[in-house]
Every structure is written in structure tokens, then in C-alpha cells.
Specification:
about 180 residues, alpha+beta, 4-stranded mixed sheet, 8 strands
């Protein structure tokens, strides 16, 4: 009986949080994204990055930025848009667990606040808000739903792997953890 009460309370808190986030999205969603490639930094609107992710159409500033940083726009677009299916209730459970904190910490090395404080909490909120919309998350959704006016994205290639690819792989691990929890 006590277990059911705890689960009911947790579900109520989750639903209330989602409603709060959905009602307050315009005030707390990211407006600017700073793309970082080593010494290169480019600040642009989230809408500009979102347009690129949706259509593949490069704005002038993105074209110049990717050329200077020697980045493949097709690869970046793929990492930004590839969706990961999740169950919202189980996502909340995993994100508030030890393994969830590890995944959040790893993704927040790529997507983070300018101050680099409360990254785990901000990322958790962005993930839950993204999942509440369509039961899936993508990196572009996380960036769009990031609860800060500005979000930074580290796009450096490290050991022949793009950091965005690493963030996407962490989302896939999150999906695997959710599937394991569902099958438990």
C-alpha cells in the first residue's frame, strides 16, 4: 500500500512538473545557442539551428562556422535530429537514478549552460519536456527546450568522434536503460 502511494505521489509530481514546464516554455526556453569548435565560437538563434536541423538549409553564419571548424553539416544534422523513443514515466525514474545522473553528466559535457552550473538539472528538465511532447527526444529538441536563455554546444571532434555523436550515444544508452526497466 505504501509503495502504491509513493508511486501515485511521484506520478502526480511528474504530471504537475510537465504542466508547469509546458505552460512556461516560452519564458524559459533557450533563445540563443553558442556553437563551440575549439577556438571557434558562434552565437546564433535556436530558430536558425532548428531550421538547419529540419530542412538541412544552412544559413550564411552556419555555413561559415562549419567551414572554419571543418565540420560536416550532414553529420551534425543527423546527430541533432535522430530521435530516441522514451516512456515519460520511466524516463523520469531513470533520470533520477544513479545511471541517469551519469548519463546526464556525460551529455552535459556537450550541451550545457554558459555558467556550467546546474547543468544536470537543466538537462533533466529539457529531456522531460522534449519527451512530454511526442514520447521521443532528439538533441535539437533538448536544445530548444533547454531552460536557459542561452545554451552552449561543444561540437569538437575528439578521437575521431564528434562530441554530438557522443551525446547522441548517451541518449541511446538512456533508451536502453528505459527498455531494461520496462522489461524488469
Amino acid at each position: 500500500m505504501r509503495f502504491k502511494f509513493f508511486e501515485l505521489r511521484r506520478a502526480l509530481v511528474l504530471v504537475t512538473s510537465i504542466c508547469f514546464l509546458l505552460l512556461s516554455t516560452p519564458a524559459f526556453a533557450a533563445e540563443r545557442v553558442v556553437l563551440k569548435y575549439g577556438i571557434f565560437r558562434e552565437s546564433l538563434s535556436v530558430g536558425e539551428l532548428s531550421t538547419f536541423a529540419q530542412t538541412g538549409e544552412l544559413s550564411r553564419s552556419l555555413r561559415v562556422n562549419f567551414a572554419l571548424a571543418r565540420q560536416d553539416p550532414k553529420a551534425i544534422r543527423q546527430y541533432l535530429t535522430q530521435p530516441v523513443k522514451v516512456n515519460l514515466v520511466f524516463l523520469d525514474r531513470v533520470l533520477n537514478s544513479r545511471i541517469g545522473n551519469i548519463i546526464l553528466d556525460r551529455v552535459s559535457q556537450v550541451i550545457f549552460t554558459p555558467s556550467q552550473k546546474a547543468d544536470r538539472q537543466a538537462l533533466r528538465a529539457a529531456l522531460v519536456l522534449s519527451a512530454s511532447q511526442d514520447a521521443q527526444v532528439s538533441l535539437i529538441e533538448i536544445i530548444k527546450n533547454y531552460p536557459s536563455n542561452e545554451v552552449e554546444v561543444d561540437g569538437v571532434v575528439y578521437r575521431r568522434r564528434h562530441r554530438l555523436e557522443g551525446a547522441y550515444r548517451q541518449l541511446r544508452r538512456l533508451q536502453t536503460s528505459l527498455q531494461n526497466l520496462l522489461n524488469f
